[in-house]
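Aim 2 progress update. The chain analyzed this quarter is reproduced below.
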Amino acid sequence: MQSLLAFAAPLALMLPMVAETVDAPGEPALAAGTSATQCDASAELDEQPAALNPLSAYRQSSVVRQVRIEQRVVVRIAPAPADARRNLTAEMPQQRAPTTRFEERGKEKCVPLAEIAGVQTGSGNRLVLFLRDRRMISVNLEKACRARDFYSGFYVEKNKDGRLCVDRDRLQSRTGARCQVEAMRQLVEVRT
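Predicted structure tokens:
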């Protein structure tokens, strides 16, 4: 019984629409000797209220509204695992234990977010980004920020170009601190 009702319900809703289109009278022709204004006046008196149709009532009462859809993508950069940091030097030939140190060289304006493999806190207001192509980038945050707030990584809102840039992007730590990137430099290994 329910399947018959489910089949008949849409047909019952469409029936008033079909009746409206079939019963709609055409415009009456003007009789000889009557003017258009007389015809309009008599047509107003002869009009009857339209039949109640739920669909036509809905269409007449519908108000057009504007809908705005915004998209926001936030990228999370997690700390690099200790194994990944150790593997940076694992592929180098093992000789006597040379002491390695890193120097900052060449300013970077932007770094692709997809290339960032991990982050490590540095001293003061510095973070070290580990990139997938085995480069390391030192990031200076604004002076009021501390790198230790970013011990568990950071969030950054993805821009249209998909890059992390100096003087544009703000990093948000998981603890809530928001800091702007002030400078980026590449760290280069120097053997002594």
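The longest strand covers residues 178-191. The chain has a mean pLDDT of 75. These observations will guide the mutagenesis experiments scheduled for the next reporting period.
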